[in-house]
Amino acid sequence: MKYITMLPFMEQEDLKELAYQVINDEVKGVKLVVLFPFLDQKTLDEIVDKLIEKGNSRELQRAIPFISESKIEKIQEAIKNGKLPDFKEEYLLPFLGHDKIKEMFKDMIKKATKEAEKATKEEPLVDEDPLDVEDSMDEE
After folding, report:
1. Which domain holds residue 7?
2. Is 55 among the domain residues?
3. What is the pLDDT of residues 115-137, one digit of tens each?
4. CA–CA separation, 58 and 88 (whole Å)
5. This prediction's pTM
6. Mean pLDDT in the chain?
7. Is residue 108 part of a domain?
8. According to the 3-state scheme, what is the secondary structure of 40-70?
């Protein structure tokens, strides 16, 4: 029998203890993601805090469908503050409210604008005839 089949019958305290052992690398061969559906909200919130603290983007991405909106927002803040550089923020989109998505979009536009301005400043000036259609046609 596999340990997974026993998870629905385990006490919350035992599951919580096991989750922390997995996070702290005290137990091998048990996937944290398998525990998420069986953990209560309070425990999941604590685990998210611990994973943010450890910078464990991979496990946080796996936890997203099981955690509260406030923890999703906490992950988003950690990403903005550079605490989770490997976390792909787009994974949060289906779980964010409209206002947070709008805020995220505005931040991306600002970033794109800054990058474009920086690239423009760094590009060497080239003598090009903007009306020279032939050269641009060759590129296509």
Report:
1. 3-94
2. yes
3. 888 887 766 555 555 555 555 44
4. 10
5. 0.72
6. 86
7. no
8. CHHHHHHHHHHHHHHCCHHHHHHHHHHCCHH
